[in-house]
Automatic annotation (TrEMBL):
GO terms for molecular function: DNA helicase activity; hydrolase activity. It comes from the Bacteria. This is Probable DNA 3'-5' helicase RecG. Pfam families: DEAD, Helicase_C, RecG_dom3_C, RecG_wedge. Residues 520-670 form the Helicase C-terminal domain.
Amino acid sequence: MRADRTTRLDRLIGAKGAKKFADQLGLATAGDLLGYFPRRYMARGELTPIQELPFDEDVTLVAQVVSSSNRRMATRKGSITEVLVSDRPGQTNGPSTLSLTFFNGFKASKQLTRGVVAMFSGRVSVYRGRLQLTNPIYDLLDPEDLDPEAAARLAGCPIPVYPATASVPSWTIAKAVGTLLGQIDLASLPEALPAPLREKYRLPPVADAYRMIHEPESDAAWRSAQRRFRFEEALVLQTALARRRAQHAALPSRPSPARRGGLLDAFDRGLPFELTAGQREVGDLLARELAASHPMNRLLQGEVGSGKTVVALRAMLQVVDDGGQAALLAPTEVLAAQHYASIRATLGPLVRDGLLGGADDLGVEVALLTGSQSAGEKKRSLLAAASGQAGIVVGTHALLSENVQFADLGLVVVDEQHRFGVEQRDALRAKSLATPHLLVMTATPIPRTVAMTVFGDLETSVLRELPRGRSPIATHTVGLVENPSWERRVWQRAREEVDAGRQVYVVCPTIGAGAGDEGDLEALDAATWGGTALAAPEQQAVSVADITAQLEAEPALEGVAIGVLHGRLDADAKTAAMRAFATGQTGVLVATTVVEVGVDVPNATLMVILDADRFGIAQLHQLRGRVGRGGHPGTCLLVTRLEPGHPSRERLAAVAASTDGFELAQKDLEFRREGDILGASQSGRRSTLRLLRVLRDAEVIASAREDAIEIVADDPDLERHPALASAIEDYLDPEREVFLERG
Ligand code: ADP
Ligand code: MG
């Protein structure tokens, strides 16, 4: 039988096997299996015998499980799995055995049962005088692999190790691939890489590359094949992005050149501070782009408090000066209401209210539109937007609903991009005949190549310097396992802040009681850009409900008013909670990550983040940006119940050690498992990128981007690159398109 890419797997490996491949690995066709690449390759020479294990080095070894046991951790919820392995058949103790320790290794305890053979990689450490590996990564192997005779037979050829599961182990996949390679005509596969690029980078043709990646005869072979597929992936992605940019840039937009003597000038004259050099520079750039007849499409990155909002407001005023309207989209109602209030406060006398009119002609009406407004308020705002009377409309996604019309929408500003999908952006764009200019703001610093990949259809600008007068934030990790008494100390510290007239945030990962246990929206949200992946599933995270009750009974906080804020409160309760905290009526606010995005209470000086290990680096960094905004130094305490040495505590240490958002963003990527960067794995899907790693492959991505721009400039519809065009279509199936569309 001949196979091609569309051949169903049941015809190759039988119905039973095919069902497992489909259920466990998501592979249905020959093409799927062909594209399921080994995760790494085993070269026997590189394996370390257990007898010769060096201390404090990274090692890889093949061994068989002798025994495995689980115990609960003494000090908190969670378990430790202890696995004893041996690399000498028959030896179950002595120098050929090694102990492996897994914290909350639920999967390890299920998979690494007696007799199982696996390849383990990790760093050798010493615990109680014995060498061990902590949380090593491992791949299950064919028990034959431990047999010296089988080893000799395979000597020389690198052994592919596939991402596998317990019931579909690596060697089963390798066998299926072997069957497939015997039946498929590789020469008939379409070649997506243009020949000149293959020559330029010395990359093997597609047919050779598939064989070299699945059945390499040498390390050089799989390396070369990987290089090819990596570049191909980068090129496909960057060509798709280059086309989007080109198509978008060709659309007509409403040019809004800066006008002298208008609102913007008046605003600048009234500013109580001087713009930073960065704000001026980005401001000039935006001014030029707004004046152009093609749409601006820009991502503005800057730390919390770097002054993005002022920059955005100035851009909005330029558009309003020209008779257009600007819309500002915020991710939550709290934030929308806050933007509305702060924009009005910042504009001061330039705000004109409804038909009453200001003292003179120069002014702009600012309208707020959110889902929870009363029918009357909504109607007024809708009218103001549709009639053009409101120059600036602030809102949540309610702004996107069909009944919202604008008279002349010239600019859309989206705050905190990562909660907004592109369908939403497009919906807003659709509200205008000409394509509105778009400015996306984010406080999450994004390394350059990630920006190129995830936000590849946007140009990016960065505000690096913080306005003067900002106080530094001191961050400390508080480990309750080693210092149980510190818990009390934390609340005493909170008391001291309140007594000094300041305020305290207490952030919890979950909402808790009465909010429904099945899914915690805010915790899930956290996962999309922070990664709670490492947190122990069986450990119950502290909740707003529990902590509120605990703090109300806490002697150190006696007499202190405690407020509560989370996403499941209705809009009025949220507003009331924010107002009570902002005005100092409540000294302590127990909240979820709703405080992460832009909530601004300058008098807050202390933030206590409980179970901080549940949050990602970027999120912790963003959270702590909420304190130290008012000229008083801020403090952030990262409280954890994880044992010292737990891998997740490294993230806390990283956040405590640096306040540079870009440095942390880079760290964040390094800590995350490969593929998580684009957020796919947290939603249970397979990683979006296959071989490409945005961090490691920065150069590949950058050169593919240049090549892609050339290809698209030369052949915009890819008529002369049909295989590349269809590779783009395959690659961008609806699931995958999601990440292209963020921003
Ligand atoms: P971001 O949106 O980036 O978090 P904001 O624009 O909200 O930052 O600015 C944070 C605070 O700093 C605001 O109170 C703002 O008025 C103030 N601010 C902005 N730019 C400057 C500046 N150049 N000098 C002093 N203060 C500034
Ligand atoms: Mg902001």
